């Protein structure tokens, strides 16, 4: 499946859209979370504690990161559009 994911502030505006592939919607969210955790690297300590617990049917996940001052920043990843890829046989 090929998905468009919206990454936005918890109670605010959309920051970015990403196109990600995966077998299930939960796998797509997990791949996106792993990408964000590696990009935001020293701030990922809080989110990585529950990084592997995404339900396979999930369409939305809240992420929490700590900044340099110890403030917790919350963001939401949400699948906006999903297309199933056809396999050529």
Number of domains: 1
- State the share of residues found in helices, binned by percent: 10-25%
* Largest β sheet strand count, sense and barrel closure: 4 strands, antiparallel
SSE run:
EEHEE
Helix count, DSSP H or I runs of 4 or more residues:
1
Tell me, briefly, the overall form: elongated
Hey, roughly how much beta strand do the residues contain? 35-45%
Query: Uncertain runs with pLDDT below 50, 5 residues or more?
Result: 47-51
| End-to-end gap | 17 Å
Entry summary:
The protein has 89 residues and is an alpha+beta fold. It is built from one helix and four strands, in the order ββαββ. About 6% of the residues have low confidence.
Outline the structure in words.
Helix content is 17%, strand content 39%. The chain has a 4-stranded antiparallel β-sheet, with helices on one face. The protein has 1 helix and 4 strands. The longest helix has 15 residues. It has one domain.
């Amino acid at each position: 499946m090929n998905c468009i994911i919206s990454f936005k502030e918890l109670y605010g505006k959309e920051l970015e859209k990403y196109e990600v592939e995966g077998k299930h919607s939960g796998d797509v969210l997990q791949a996106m979370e792993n990408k964000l955790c590696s990009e935001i690297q020293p701030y990922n300590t809080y989110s990585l504690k529950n990084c592997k617990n995404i339900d396979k049917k999930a369409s939305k996940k809240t992420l929490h990161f700590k900044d340099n001052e110890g403030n917790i920043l919350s963001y939401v990843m949400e699948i906006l559009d999903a297309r199933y890829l056809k396999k050529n046989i």
